[in-house]
Amino acid sequence: MKIRILGRDLEVSEIGFGCMGMSHAYGTVSTQKEAEELIEKAIDEGCTFFDTAEIYGTTEDPHHNEKLLGEVLRPYRNKIVLASKCGIRFDETATTVNKPLIPDGRPETIKASIEGSLMRLNTDHLDLYYIHRIDMTVPIEETAGAMKELMEQGKITHWGLSEASEEIIRRAHKVCPVTAIQNRYSMMYRDYEKLFPVLEELKIGFVAFSPLANGLLTAAYHSHGEFEKPGDYRSAMPQFTEEGLKENNEFMSWMKVIAEEKNVTPAQISLAWMLAKKPYIVPIPGTRKVNRLEENMESADIKLTQDEVKSIDEMLAHMPMSQVFGGSKIQKK
């Protein structure tokens, strides 16, 4: 797999691995053996970029994902780029399956969080550390200043922002150069394409989470009943309601036709389209299945021309489709 450059100098594989689903939001938690098989396959396929966060876990073990990766990635640590995130917590008083998020971008919170993440991940530094959501009660300059201190201390080598706007990106970048933003992006959620000009101006990378619209673009799901498991966020996502699935019938049929023309899968077309859009976009699809991970990683071998990308964009602009999950509610402190 080829590499891409995030920011000034962070080299990562064209496709990364979003590890959240092994611990959080999809109803089933991976065992260490299952995680080892996934990571081994990802490494074999040329993946060097692994993404987690301090809040990816379960009610019983809120930091499950970082702990799991700390064990499983230990043999590969010097060969990979490891990213994690800080700056939010769940509203544990909520009864919804996807509990609201409470941002906390205070410098003291960031400095405490990095210590916990480094311990759980069995490492002395992170290659990329994001503020997970923007805390509008704390000036982003203060958050950026804390990240700059962590860089000076060698605890992180690069930093980024998740779900950030142009204004926030510009203000943060003045204090400490931003390497990457990590925002939701897929064929069904293209809102952040408006950020491409500023990212190109400031030489900031775009790490795309939920690049397969939480799995819908795999074309593998056909009934809302498939998600009625405790802790499965898809049970509350609009694209997976029975109505949403019906609304997406034409879209998914079109995706299958496009994929068949290339002798690939809809998921692979989705990721190949994203890679062809901009050279600084790096999708981080997640999965708990080895065969699905292999399918995702092999998307890097599929090349779409700019004419093909333009044709797909035009179709997406006119294709009827459902709303897509836009993230958990942000709640004030």
Structure explained in plain terms:
Keywords: Oxidoreductase. Pfam families: Aldo_ket_red. This protein has one domain: NADP-dependent oxidoreductase domain (TIM Barrel, Alpha-Beta Barrel), CATH 3.20.20.100. The strands form 3 sheets. It has an 8-stranded parallel β-sheet. Strands 1-2 form a two-stranded antiparallel ribbon. It is of the alpha/beta class. The chain is built from 11 helices and 12 strands. Strand 3, helix 1 and strand 4 form a beta-alpha-beta unit. The mean pLDDT is about 90. It is globular.
Provide the β-strand percentage band. Answer: 5-15%
| Secondary-structure element series | EEEHEHEEEHEHEHEHEHHHEHH
Radius of gyration: 19 Å
If classified by CATH, what would the architecture be? Alpha-Beta Barrel
| Helix amount | 25-40%
**CATH class categorisation:** Alpha Beta
| Count of discrete alpha- or pi-helical segments spanning 4 or more residues | 11
The description of the largest β-sheet is: 8 strands, parallel
Q: Quick one: CATH superfamily?
A: NADP-dependent oxidoreductase domain
**Beginning-to-end CA distance, first to last residue:** 43 Å
Structural classification: alpha/beta
Keywords: Oxidoreductase
GO cellular component, one term: cytoplasm
GO molecular function, one term: oxidoreductase activity
Domain NADP-dependent oxidoreductase: 14-316
Key features?
333 residues, alpha/beta, TIM Barrel, eight-stranded parallel sheet, two-stranded antiparallel sheet, NAD(P)_OxRdtase_dom_sf
Topology:
Layout: E1 3-6, E2 10-13, E3 17-18, H1 32-44, E4 49-51, H2 64-72, E5 81-86, E6 88-90, E7 101-103, H3 107-120, E8 128-131, H4 140-152, E9 159-162, H5 166-175, E10 180-184, H6 196-202, E11 205-209, H7 242-247, H8 249-262, H9 266-277, E12 281-283, H10 290-297, H11 306-318
Parallel strand pairs: 3-4, 4-5, 5-8, 8-9, 9-10, 10-11, 11-12
Antiparallel strand pairs: 1-2, 6-7
Helix pairs in contact: 1-2, 1-10, 3-4, 4-5, 8-9
